[in-house]
UniProtKB/TrEMBL annotation:
<keyword id="KW-0663">Pyridoxal phosphate</keyword>
<protein>
    <recommendedName>
        <fullName>Tryptophan synthase beta chain-like PALP domain-containing protein</fullName>
    </recommendedName>
</protein>
<feature type="modified residue" description="N6-(pyridoxal phosphate)lysine">
    <location>
        <position position="50"/>
    </location>
</feature>
<feature type="active site" description="Nucleophile">
    <location>
        <position position="77"/>
    </location>
</feature>
<comment type="similarity">
    <text>Belongs to the ACC deaminase/D-cysteine desulfhydrase family.</text>
</comment>
<dbReference type="InterPro" id="IPR036052">
    <property type="entry name" value="TrpB-like_PALP_sf"/>
</dbReference>
<dbReference type="InterPro" id="IPR001926">
    <property type="entry name" value="TrpB-like_PALP"/>
</dbReference>
<dbReference type="GO" id="GO:0019148">
    <property type="term" value="F:D-cysteine desulfhydrase activity"/>
</dbReference>
<dbReference type="Pfam" id="PF00291">
    <property type="entry name" value="PALP"/>
</dbReference>
<dbReference type="InterPro" id="IPR027278">
    <property type="entry name" value="ACCD_DCysDesulf"/>
</dbReference>
<feature type="domain" description="Tryptophan synthase beta chain-like PALP">
    <location>
        <begin position="12"/>
        <end position="293"/>
    </location>
</feature>
Length: 307
């Protein structure tokens, strides 16, 4: 990612991202070994799966003469935050189509995005539901514009995520990651070795569509065995979490030293331990958990009085 003068932190990506062993009392009980792939440390503002998913979008923009990135997200979107920073550092204009009312601009996520030069366009929920409709998208399409799907999940995201696999110096029995739009899972399926398994924890309610989305993004995934999506750890739905889950996340972080948030990484780690308790993971497994970032979202949760 090419840096330019901006107020966004200018620092080369840390690659490979660190791989940290985790020590927790329950891991001994379940007879598994657990490492965390700390993609949250790749970059201070373009962290985790966002850096990997945007890498080839930015390369595509440069190679095809695009000077404007346009994408979609909610008022607290990690993707919108990362896209604004990436565009700022790469000298590209950015626009965010934001679901919700314009008074949400006061939150820390969108304040950062505006400070990094992103134009914000607010639309109501009914309009936002049309974000995959070609006729509706046509109003935003223009020469020089690259439309990036919500969450950065497009076929361009696949190779960036797949590169993660070669950064781990051993072959784990199981990869574990949070899953929402399906792009990170699709990329991991593309990069994994044949014998490796993947457990994706859906962080939203009604996530049965995710498997179809994964196969749309990476058609070969339909014939690749060894991956599954756990749908029963959403704890009420996307961006929802109970006080019990948040307490579990805080306790886990205190014991392991691993920072987590309750929307993506914390919910996925909680789901992993529920899967272990249910006996759905083989004893003796070597597990790599992918920390997909999103820690900037904690500020928004605090602003909303939810933490």
């Amino acid at each position: 990612m090419q840096a330019s003068l901006s107020s966004a932190p200018e620092r080369p990506a840390i690659l490979p991202s660190p791989l940290h062993p985790l020590h927790h009392s329950l891991l001994i009980r379940y007879d598994v070994e657990l490492w965390c792939k700390r993609d949250d440390l790749i970059h201070p503002t373009i962290s985790g799966n966002k850096w990997r998913k945007l890498k080839y979008h930015l390369q595509h923009a440069r190679e095809h003469g695009k000077n404007h990135l346009l994408s979609f997200g909610g008022a607290y979107s990690n993707h919108i935050h990362a896209l604004a920073a990436a565009g700022c550092q790469s000298g590209l204009r950015t626009t965010g189509i934001i679901r919700g009312e314009s008074d949400a601009v006061s939150n820390s996520t969108l304040r950062d995005a505006k400070r990094w030069g992103m134009d914000l366009v607010f639309v109501d929920r009914q309009s936002y539901r049309q974000r995959q409709d070609p006729d509706w998208l046509a109003r935003f399409d223009a020469p020089g514009t690259l439309i990036v799907p919500e969450g950065g999940s497009s076929p361009l995201a696949i190779p960036g995520v797949a590169e993660l696999v070669s950064e781990v110096p051993f072959s784990p029995d199981l990869w574990v990651l949070p899953c929402a739009s399906g792009g990170t899972l699709a990329g991991l399926i593309a990069g994994k070795r044949d014998q490796e398994q993947i457990l994706a924890i859906a962080v939203l309610k009604g996530g049965s569509f995710i498997a179809d989305e994964v196969c749309r993004l990476h058609p070969a995934a339909a014939s690749i065995p060894g991956w599954r999506i756990a749908l029963d750890h959403h704890d009420g739905g996307y961006a929802k979490f109970s006080p019990a889950l948040w307490q579990w996340v805080q306790d886990f972080s205190a014991e392991t030293g691993l920072p987590l948030e309750p929307i993506y990484s914390g919910k996925a780690m909680w789901g992993l331990f529920r899967e272990l308790a249910a006996g759905r993971i083989a004893p003796g497994s070597k597990i790599v958990f992918i920390h997909t970032g999103g820690m900037q979202g904690l500020a928004g949760l605090r602003e909303q009085g939810r933490l």
